[in-house]
Amino acid sequence: MALGVNQMIDAKIDLIIRGGQVVTPTSTKKADVAIAGEIIAAVTEPGLLSSATQEIDASGRYVLPGAIDSHVHFREPGYTHKENWASGTAAAACGGATSVFEMPNTNPPTGSVEALKLKQDLAGAQAYVDYGIYGLLDENNIDSLEDLIRNGVSGFKCFMGNTFGDLPAPSDGAMLEGFEILASHGYRCTVHAENASIMARRQDRLESAGRGDPLAHLAARPAICAIEAVGRAIAFAEWTGARLHIAHKSSKDALYLIKDAKTRGVDVTVETCPHYLLMTTDDMERLGGLLRVNPPIREPGHGEALWDALHDGTIDMIATDHAPHLPEEKKGKTIWQCDCGFPGVETQMPVMLTQVNAGRLSINQYVQWSAQAPAKAWGCYPQKGVIQSGSDADIVIANLNRGGVVDNAALHSKSKITPWHGFETTASVEYTLVRGRIVVEAGHLVGAPGWGRAVRQQMPAPRPRNTDKTMRAIIDSHGVLQQ
């Protein structure tokens, strides 16, 4: 934590947050935070700052860096009846997320420069919070990956298993070639790590046998799907030197593969979600199709292993996989007719801070897992993910002494249906600031759409491996030999 007025940026102070407990991954200390324009000017001992145009009394509250949700689906373009950039980022702001990274399975999917520019325009006009946009890595756009990089994607997503949008999984050959290209640029690729072939065959067999109950979804996607796909993704990343991110880790079974890879120095980061930490198949039986999600909610015992993996560093961060659908789209006659996913970006912080109050994690660990770790993984630290002089003023003021009951009707998402409906929280988001501007005040959305902007990223230098064996190198060397 930067302390002392001598470290203050030489600028007019526009806003002071006074008297709150400022939290970093390693400390919690009462301090005042001075904001000049969009930047944190200083973090000082209480009472040293004279005055500002605007002040917030944060006494008795915690002052946190805004959450960075590296996994959201805002459905625009193509599925705006489910969500759009305005409703999705409004939900994010009210849930304490100041930056989001949005997935490419829209219509059209974000696999071309034209589709990327369309999404950039939509986000720029509507977003309440800052954002990154994923590009797609699939079978047919390998030649477009570098164009997508030049035009501002934040990273890439490879759907090894099917999910909403029915984007086909790329062949191993295309995936490896894509990793070779991304490794040369230092970009991180997120993978939906489930084996598509196993899942498709098992679902078809289950449907033919008449299984349409909620647990049939889990039966079609056993943990071996994740074990195989995680191992394959790690092998490709280690061979090429590509940076890898494992999305929505739901099961305990492949954690040993990740831990071993990290020990060998593979640049692999991992996220899990609140629903995998706190829900089980017991909830699936209770809630039915509402809780259908990919990967599936699993049996008791997996959640405890995921908690342990967060604590020992095998899992790096918390994301939400915010995946909105209309209520009627979640209520099919069989589990196969219920769309997969549900909203989560607005409930993550209250739910997880409730776990802080319950002793499952410290407030410092929460900041590490929700803000600093994703900021580092996606190349935007220390501009984001931390409260210190010179960083963006992306700040949440949270009350850990006042919660509420999660209510479908109160969600800012268009998806007015959540498995957290009725959940009693013991914490709440009171203020959300995005680059110094108050977007949520006293729990109410007060910001304006269009304030959010593309996150500025600077990934570490690339570290490609086996560069003489890449598809490009092989083709180029063949051309030289022919000459």
Spell out the key features of this protein.
483 residues, alpha/beta, 9-stranded mixed β-sheet, 8-stranded parallel β-sheet, 20% strand, disordered N terminus
Overview of the structural elements:
With 483 residues, the chain is α/β, with parallel strands linked by helices. The chain is 31% helix and 20% strand. The protein is built from 14 helices and 19 strands. The strands form three sheets. Strands 1, 2, 3, 4, 5, 14, 17, 18 and 19 form a nine-stranded mixed sheet that branches. Strands 6-7-8-9-10-11-12-13 form an eight-stranded parallel sheet. Helix 5 packs across helix 6 (214-220). The radius of gyration is 22 Å and the shape is globular.
Determine the mean pLDDT: 95
Counting DSSP E segments of at least 2 residues, the number of strands comes to 19
**Rg value:** 22 Å
Low-confidence stretches: 1-10
Helix content: 25-40%
Approximately what portion of the residues adopt beta-strand conformation?
A: 15-25%
Note the overall shape.
Answer: globular
Query: What is the terminal-to-terminal distance?
Result: 60 Å
- How does the helix and strand content classify structurally? alpha/beta
Put simply, the count of helices is 14
Question: What summary fits the major beta sheet?
Answer: 9 strands, mixed
